[in-house]
Amino acid sequence: MSQLIYKIVPEPLWREAERNRRFTGAPIDVADGFIHFSTAGQARETAAKHFAGQTGLLLVAVDDARLGDALKYEVSRGGALFPHLYGPLDLNAVVWVQPLPLGTDGRHQFPTLEAE
Which of 22, 46, 93, 104 could be bridged to 66 by S-S, CB 3.0 to 4.6 A? Predict the structure, then answer.
């Protein structure tokens, strides 16, 4: 059964990926050897922990079933299973991309996420 997983990406980096038709990851992904994703239940905490106060971000929703065996759910923060993609993201797996603005409270304003 497929579900959406989410990637928070600075807009310039994502626009470059769109031009190339593939996303090879942000610098942290390249350093770690895989592309970090979050499930719907993890995305807000990821934004708060790794992107606090940052503007110019996009939220990218990806169908995990389209990623094949390169996607692994592995234990990470707090013992939770996080989706990690070992290889480039084929943009054909992307379902939608939306801005992830900061609200007046300084937190990112998320759309309704599937599986919340």
Answer: 93
Q: How far apart are alpha carbons 25 and 73 in whole angstroms?
A: 17
Q: What is the pLDDT of residue 79?
A: 86
CA 44 to chain CA centroid, Å, is 11
- What are the structural domain ranges in the chain? 4-99
Tokens, residue 31 = 């350093």
Q: What is the pLDDT of residue 109?
A: 95
According to the CATH classification, is domain 4-99 in 3.20.20.70?
no
User: What is the CA 39 to chain-centroid distance, rounded?
Assistant: 8
DSSP H stretches of helix in the chain: 11-20, 27-32, 43-50
Q: Measured between alpha carbons, how far is 85 from 48 in angstroms, rounded to an integer?
A: 22
CA atoms of 86 and 101, how far apart (whole Å): 28
Q: What is the mean pLDDT of each run of 10 residues along the chain (116 residues)?
A: 92 96 94 96 94 96 96 88 96 96 94 76
CA-closest candidate to residue 17, choices 81, 67, 90, 71: 90
